[in-house]
Amino acid sequence: MTSHDIRIFGDPVLTSRADEITAFDDSLKHLVEDMLDTMDAAGGVGLAANQIGVLRRVFVFDCTTEEDGMRGHIINPQWEPVGEETQLGPEGCLSIPEVLADTERYQTVRVTGYDYDGNPLTITASGLMARCIQHETDHLDGVLFLRRLTPERRKEAMAYIRQADWFNK
């Protein structure tokens, strides 16, 4: 398969909403495999299609831990919180290198969607996997995690970004 370049903060594709997927074919399977390779090469735990310039509603993930975890993909994800409990923890993004900020997310979520063969799936997840589902679905909606930060944390992150070598190229 192929590893793609990851789009970086400032690229308009990152703030564009991805289109629903209606064709479950070999090109979709190939896209998912390329996205997994790209995520692995970059050392990430999740990657949305628009991060490689493709405006289609699919993300891949690898949230394996020593205790448990999952690796896979979700087409046309829709999530909802399970309960009101939230988690506050460090979050980063492959499209915003070197920026890590405490971000509040729901502790547990339920996501529905499809696999690349068009089979429906439902996952209930907590912790890192729940964070990943929320983060990657935000990407597909054109929302970067910076928008989920408190004003103070967003200001700090933006100050760092403005000084970063990768941003000033």
Your description of this structure?
- This protein has 3 helices and 7 strands; from the N terminus they run αβββββββαα.
- Helices cover 26% and strands 31% of the residues.
- The chain has one domain (12-163): Peptide Deformylase (Alpha-Beta Complex).
- With 169 residues, it is an alpha+beta fold.
- The longest helix has 17 residues, at 26-42.
- The two termini are 29 Å apart.
- Strand 4 (86-93) and strand 5 form a beta hairpin.
- It is globular.
In short:
By secondary structure, this protein is an alpha+beta fold.
CATH architecture: Alpha-Beta Complex
Task: State the CATH topology.
Answer: Peptide Deformylase
Question: Major beta sheet, specifics?
Answer: 5 strands, antiparallel
What structural class should be given to the helix and strand makeup? alpha+beta
Enzyme class: hydrolase
Catalytic activity: N-terminal N-formyl-L-methionyl-[peptide] + H2O = N-terminal L-methionyl-[peptide] + formate
Keywords: Hydrolase, Iron, Metal-binding, Protein biosynthesis
GO molecular function: metal ion binding; peptide deformylase activity
